[in-house]
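Closing statement on the iron/sulfur cluster sub-project.
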Amino acid sequence: MEKSNNILNTLRKLFPDAKCELEYHNIYELLIAVSLSAQTTDKRVNIVTKQLFKLYPTPYELSKASYDDVYNCIKSLGLAQIKTKNIIALSNKLINDFSSGNSEYYVPNTREELMTLPGVGRKTANVILSEGFKIPAIAVDTHIARVSNRLGLVKSNDVYIIEQTLMKLFDESDWYIVHHTLLFFGRYLCKAKNPECNRCPFKENCEENI
Ligand code: SF4
């Protein structure tokens, strides 16, 4: 734990403002934004969701939307066809299976329930739990998987093993900041191609043979 806490302290200093970069106003918007974020940047998602959330402010409106209208709104994102299908189907499921009757955008707050929604896997569910509900969870994406290995925190490419290992290495109260600082480190410094090793505070102990 000493090694992992030292790494976390350094990451906190490197990225004191690490946080979710997706823009949202409520848990429904967060769920849609995260669902759209695969294979694109948060910046591009934010551009698209500005218009999308104006047109479809609740799951009710999105569940009634036509495929073509939603597709035209999000087509600048990667995987737009499948994302269009998923977010319409997901909204239908929110209305049909999870509507509490007194909330316009009821989103379930357990991993099991979240993962029944179309297009929602474990990573997305963990983001919603952690970011939306403040329930401790670590969402492992491609950045976190890569940097966790390079930093020597884990030796695995299996995202489930990485998640479980990180959960053991860090205090539950730190999981939110562990997720965001590792993510920022992977996005802005220890990139997949051309990592900026010359300015990396971990270069002496890096596991990457570069
Ligand atoms: S030395 Fe380079 S590859 Fe290693 S952790 Fe730092 S930035 Fe990443």
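The mean pLDDT is 94. With this model delivered, the sub-project is considered complete and its resources will be redirected to Aim 3.
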